[in-house]
Amino acid sequence: MPSYLVTGANRGLGLAMVKELLKDPQNVVVGTARDPGRCEALEALTKEYPSDRFASVALNLLVKYTIDKAAEDTAALLPNGLDYLVNNAGVCHQNVVPFESVDMDVLVEELHVNTAAPLYLLQKFLPLIRKGSEKKVMLISSCLGSLEAAPMFLGCSDSYSLTKAGLNMLGRKWGALLKEEGVTVVVVHPGWIDTDMGSHIEDWVAQHAPETRKLPPSESAEGCLKVFQIAKLENAVEYYTWDGTNLPW
Description:
By secondary structure, the chain is α/β, with parallel strands linked by helices. Helix content is 44%, strand content 14%. The protein has one domain: NAD(P)-binding Rossmann-like Domain (Rossmann fold), CATH 3.40.50. The chain starts with a strand and ends in an 8-residue tail after the last strand. InterPro entries: NAD(P)-bd_dom_sf, SDR_enzymes, SDR_fam.
């Protein structure tokens, strides 16, 4: 049975991915949240599905030891290894703050959650991924992390863009090394999604990119997972949008 771990599964895109994956009775899904026991959506899924189909584990990307513990807990749940790791959790605290006004303390937190913590997460989960049959990693990034496309997004989530550019580099460089041992890494922009995070840039989008369509989380989740599942090792590392088209690095 294919096994998946999705970080940031308590809401938004992460929750939509978990629900999409659970539609297939063959899938085993682990969802993470800072405090799963206080998340009604995850608690509901725990009651709806047996423990060999869905489980939740605690993971806070700001707290290193919770990543260690999450890796241990997941290894106990998946003794045959992890097939698919979805690094989805992220933050954007300075949505339309220009560079000259970026709060450095907040930026440090954003960099920790969006860039540094995913590196550590992969370090801790890599042994479990190596045991899996599929050996795939998806980093949920953003078009805002593209260096080539950056001039198109002036004034839109500037500090967030820095963190996603760093995440892209993580996937691009480490993914190239992991490819040599059979691990497929893909970087995916999930689109502009109708979530709490996405709502904060509505005015910017209306002014600068009014043609952009806001996606329901379920549509983005379905697209991202399709890209992930059909990705081939020989094509790693690629930078995709949720609909499978390529983005420039």
